[in-house]
Amino acid sequence: MTETLAPDDAGIARAARLLAQGELVAFPTETVYGLGGDARSDRAVAGIYAAKGRPTFNPLIVHLPDLAAAEALAMVGPNARALAQAFWPGPLTLVLPLRDGAGLSPLVTAGLPTVAIRIPAHPLARRLLQAFGGPVAAPSANPSGRVSPTRAAHVLDGLAGRIAAVLDGGPCAVGLESTIVAADPLPTLLRPGGVPVEAMEALLGQPFATGGDAHAPSAPGQLASHYAPRAGVRLNATAAEPGEVLVGFGPVKGALTLSDSADLTEAAARLFDLLRQADRLAGPHGRIAFAPVPESGLGLAINDRLRRAAAPRP
Ligand code: TXA
Ligand code: MG
Description:
Number of helices: 9
Bound molecules: threonylcarbamoyladenylate, magnesium ion
Order of helices and strands: EHEEHEHHEEHEHEEEHEEEEHEH
Strand order of the largest sheet: 1-8-2-3-7-4-6-5-9-10-11
Number of strands: 15
């Protein structure tokens, strides 16, 4: 049985106690729900991979309360520091050189000399990290390859019975995973996400290189097929074909809509829930079609997720 914990002092204390016992607890962040486990515990981290059915070559993000905690585990270079000061806490993950003796389970980093670190902004995530008092490894709380969860009910859809608890914090405000960056010496975008790359380029005054292609992924989780609903997905649709559920955006009106007013923030927040709704509406033989979304700002991350949702399945 997976416990559902209320977003109050008792729920947070219970979640922290379960983490301390090496159990797995899903918790809300501003991006998506994470599947948390003690990042120092081989047993807890192995449990995360097992619960998700995730390949163990795909390393996990370590969640911490602040930059000082990050500096205890990893080396923070000049570009990384500037990005951290501007965008932490928030939807940014920095890939940093791991310090010797950091004390993380080697399973977290899948043997890489680097570690991905994020300081979440969600108040419940922050309270949980404080109460637990250690590093929390947390991938998105969904079975590997499927749509990421932005509500507690989405977590239970995929993982009920496989994890100890979910802390219910309601819907996630950003709705897309964090932006992943390797910052030093040259800033490289490994995964587009909740912080638009344009904002980081403006801060550092230089363009970002792009990494993480599907064949030689530098963020190894960036496989071509991901975020896959059951139904097939067609992109850049301006009208529904027979048997399709059209998800509109702006001027393209569908049975469902990412944003009537073409607002990318609203579209990001709704994307994963709409993928699930469209999947239900499409039924066993239907397909899902998405209206075009502009390739700028949060649109870069939205289109990245949509392309992976539409990619041929393994
Ligand atoms: O918003 C988010 O980032 C959410 C919440 C829960 O924090 N987490 C998340 O985790 O999206 P996950 O496991 O679904 O995606 C983590 C990504 C994977 O693509 C993984 O390959 C990459 O981070 N990653 C982890 N450690 C890395 C490293 N040392 N070098 C490069 N990529 C790394
Ligand atoms: Mg994920």
